[in-house]
Structure formats: C-alpha cells, structure tokens
Write a structure and sequence with these properties.
This protein is of the alpha/beta class. The protein folds into 2 domains: 137 residues, ATPase, nucleotide binding domain (Nucleotidyltransferase, domain 5), CATH 3.30.420; 203 residues, ATPase, nucleotide binding domain (Nucleotidyltransferase, domain 5). The chain has 12 helices and 9 strands. It has a 5-stranded mixed sheet, with helices on both faces. Helix 2 runs parallel beside helix 3, helix 7 crosses helix 8 and helix 7 packs parallel to helix 9. The chain binds 5'-O-[(R)-(carboxyoxy)(hydroxy)phosphoryl]adenosine and zinc ion.
Length: 380
C-alpha cells in the first residue's frame, strides 16, 4: 500500500511516498529555517505563506522521486493537528483537494503520532549499525539502557524486514519544539499520556537558552554543536522537582539565565538579549554543554521512573525534533530513535502513522469536512 504523506504543521513543507508504513520511496522536506533564523523564531503568517509557495512543487517532487503516478497512490495522509493554524490550513486544503481530484481516501493524522511512527520507517541511514546489534549490546552509561536491553524481545512479524521494530507495550518519549510527553502505547494507534510538561517543551527550552547564549535559531542543533567544545560540568544547573512523570523546563531556562548573569557579573535586571555580548566563546560552549547535559538527565530520570512504574514495557521509542540530539542518543543507547533525518518534521512519518491507523481499522475522513485542530491532545 502506497501512501502520500503531507506535513505542514510548523515551518517545514514536506511530502513523501511510503510503502506499507515502512519503505520510503521519496521524502522531500523544504525547511523555512533560513527565513526564521533572521527573526530568531517562527512567524506564523510568514510560515503559512511559505507553505503556500512550496506545497505543490514539494508534492510533485515527492511523486516524481517515488516514480509514482496518481494511479499508484492508495491513500493521502495529512497532518491536521496540532500546529500553527495557517500552516495546518495549507496542508489540509491541499490534501483535501487532491483527495477529491484523484478520488483517494484521505486520512487526517495527529502530529505527535507521526513523530512516534518515524520509528517504524526503515532506517537506511543507520544501516551500518543495525538496531538488532545495538539492542543486545549492554550499555556502559545510564541505567535506563541496560534495563531495557533485558526486556527487549521481538515477535517473528517484527523481523520481516532488515530492521527490528519496537515491541508493545512501549513507552514513547516525545521531545519536540511544542511537546514533551511520555506516552504509553499498548498497541498500534493506542496512545495514553502518562507524563507531560507543565510549562515549556524541552525543544523550546533549547531554543530559548540558545537565544540567551547568542546562538542561532533553531537552538537545538546550535547548542549541540557548541556543546562539543564545552565542559559539561562547569556550571551546575538544577533539576526541577516535579511530581510523578511530568516535566518542567521553564525553571531550567531561568536557571541558565541567572547563572549567566552571575558569571558575567550583572544584576538580574540586566536584559537577557545583551548577555551574549559579555560571554566569551568558551563560556558559551561550557553553558551549552552544561545545559544539554542537564536537559538530557532530566528526560532520562523521568523515563527511568516510568520504566519502574511499568515493568511490562518492551521497548522505548524517542520521537520529535530533539530526538536528533546525539547526547540523548548516546545515553539512551537501547531505545529506538528515528534515522537522524527523520527526527524533525517530514511527510514520511505522516504516511507511516496513517498506515498503522488503517491497519487498526480507522476509516478515511470526508475531504469535504476535514477540520484542523491547532491544539489537541494525542489521546483524542
Ligand atoms: O519536531 P520538531 O521538528 O517540530 C515540532 O514539532 O516542534 O522539533 C523542533 C525542535 C526545536 O525546538 C529544535 O531546537 C529541536 O527540535 N532540535 C534539537 C535538535 N535538533 C532539533 N534539540 C536538541 N538537539 C538537536 N540536535
Ligand atoms: Zn514536529
């Protein structure tokens, strides 16, 4: 079954053709990062306008790269929630029109589900280190990894291609620019939120800390890059005290701000956007490394607690833009991660999520009445 997946929930215009929820026949992503680097963040109206310009060429290229005609496409899938209103509108209106025009069933997919399902796509990039080997290798770091390694099992169905797939029940750690959640999945297409952030998402925290340090947008990759030359133990940053499996990241951002102010000897009233002028290159790198280490530790602590609470868990999958983070990948060696290029927003994960919805018996949406939901939970 070939599905055309369309994604426009934030600042990436993306389309892909995926066969049977796993094999990527094409994957085209046009990012607006260059536009928003200048502003230091996404401007919703500009994002929508850019989607409008890019969407049809992106879909055409996805079809051409996959060497597909419309006759070859079995269904169209599109992100309808959550995200920026204008951005969601462009993607869904395009998908609705194409579904009517070419008489294809249309599936409306939740963005966080799509991020999770990036873990079911064939990981051609990491082919040299098959997950099968990674899983049986005991980790030398952290306690989450060895505990998972013991639990990993796989049914014969999951060995059907070269790549091992996550087993149920599983925990999904969703770490993106808008969300930080731990999801419990009993089976395909069943999502229960067991932990969520009370304030900022972890990706948002990377972006805000990068701004304080004068590093370019998006903050995640630039913090990770600066951290490579930094001393992660130079600045001690606090771990928030949050009950249960929930998170809080706004305190960590403020802790970085206060520590920077103290380090450069200015009062707390000093404007945060001017601090970068007072920091040396080495201080920036040391702050980036110390922050990244703390953020990763916080995520891992909660994941460990979740694994203690749910001893039946067979796999952990990590999803969302922050899953590209190498430090996180290093610490959670035994967890499933999408191929690095599939960590961020893309159309392939939308097609994969729709495939498993279809397998779970979900019916197509009426293209004439499909709605968008800028803020809606993955449980709905
Ligand atoms: O999933 P995503 O592409 O968009 C949303 O759905 O939000 O996530 C974007 C977030 C941004 O906050 C970005 O800074 C972060 O993912 N990110 C990273 C890395 N690459 C992207 N955070 C940490 N390390 C990275 N390497
Ligand atoms: Zn996303």
């Amino acid at each position: 079954m070939k599905i055309l997946g369309i994604e426009t929930s934030c600042d990436e215009t993306a389309a892909a053709v995926v066969e049977d929820g796993r094999r990527i026949l094409s994957n085209v992503v046009v990012s607006q990062i260059d536009i928003f680097a200048e502003y230091g963040g996404v401007i919703p109206e500009v994002a929508a306008r850019s989607h409008l310009e890019a969407i049809l060429p992106v879909i055409d290229k996805a079809m051409a790269d996959a060497e597909c005609s419309w006759d070859d496409i079995d269904a169209i899938a599109v992100t309808h929630a959550p995200g920026l209103l204008g951005s969601l509108l462009i993607g869904t209106l395009t998908a609705r029109t194409l579904a009517v025009l070419h008489d294809k069933p249309l599936y409306a997919v939740h963005h966080l589900k799509s991020h999770v399902y990036a873990n079911w796509l064939d990981d051609m990039e990491s082919k040299n280190t098959p997950l099968r080997n990674a899983l049986s290798r005991p980790s030398s770091r952290g306690s989450v990894a060895p505990c998972l390694a013991r639990r990993q099992t796989c049914s014969s169905e999951e060995y059907s291609s070269d790549f091992i797939r996550p087993s149920f029940p599983l925990l999904a750690l969703v770490v993106s620019g808008g969300h930080t959640q731990i999801l419990y999945m009993r089976a395909h297409n069943q999502f229960e939120i067991i932990g969520t952030t009370h304030d900022d998402a972890v990706g948002e925290c990377f972006d805000k800390v990068a701004k304080i340090l004068g590093l370019p947008y998006p903050g995640g990759p630039s913090i990770a890059k600066a951290a490579r030359s930094g001393d992660a133990d130079r600045y001690k940053l606090p771990h928030p005290k949050v009950e249960g499996l929930d998170f809080s990241f706004s305190g960590l951002k403020t802790a970085v701000l206060r520590t920077v102010q103290k380090e450069v000897g200015v009062p707390i009233s000093y404007p945060s956007h001017k601090l970068k002028e007072l920091l040396t290159q080495q201080q920036v790198c040391d702050f980036a490394a110390s922050f990244q280490k703390t953020a990763v530790e916080i995520l891992c602590e909660k994941l460990e607690e979740a694994l203690d609470r749910y001893p039946e868990i067979q796999s952990v999958v990590v999803a969302g833009g922050v899953s590209a983070n190498k430090e996180l990948r290093e610490v959670l060696k035994e967890a499933f991660f999408p191929a690095p290029s599939l960590s961020g927003d893309n159309g392939a994960m939308v097609a994969a999520a729709a495939y498993y919805e279809i397998q779970s018996g979900v019916k197509p949406t009426d293209p004439y009445s499909l709605n968008i939901y800028p803020r809606v939970s993955v449980e709905k």
